[in-house]
Design goal:
mainly alpha, elongated, single chain, 8 helices, 140 residues
Length: 140
């Protein structure tokens, strides 16, 4: 618990609008991907082909769409950012592995790696000073 408090103190002391803009952009991107998965089932089935023999593969579809949509919203407003990002890690790991198990698409691999690295950053950094977490913390 002490480590998280130390990270929060450092993040609040080094809060910049650019990082907040990056957090909001990441959240909006995840929301758009979640809506994309919900609306274009054929593209998602094509991406899921390497995993079609796994039991419960349709559960993955529902998890991905919901985690991207809800997690993206939480990241945008800065509420429970670390939790929202943590729920993205299995999805992003699967997106990276899809390129190695299925057809290699370098653009998708690079995009998944960039989003994964941004999520790792915000998992460590937190939501920052301009967020709902910080506002609620200051109201105590």
């Amino acid at each position: 618990m002490g480590t998280i408090k130390t990270w929060n103190k450092w993040a609040n002391a080094h809060s910049y609008y650019g990082l907040d803009l990056l957090r909001v952009t990441l959240g909006v991107f995840l929301i758009v991907k979640g809506v994309s998965f919900m609306s274009d089932l054929d593209a998602f089935i094509t991406a899921m082909q390497p995993y079609e023999n796994l039991p419960g593969s349709w559960i993955i579809l529902h998890y991905v769409a919901a985690a991207h949509f809800v997690g993206g919203f939480f990241i945008v407003i800065g509420l429970l950012t670390r939790w929202a990002v943590a729920f993205q890690f299995p999805i992003l790991f699967g997106a990276i592995m899809t390129n190695f198990l299925g057809d290699m698409v370098p653009a998708n691999l690079i995009l998944a790696l960039v989003i994964f690295l941004a999520c790792v950053f915000f998992f460590v950094y937190g939501s920052g000073k301009h967020s709902a977490d910080y506002y609620l913390k200051m109201q105590q």
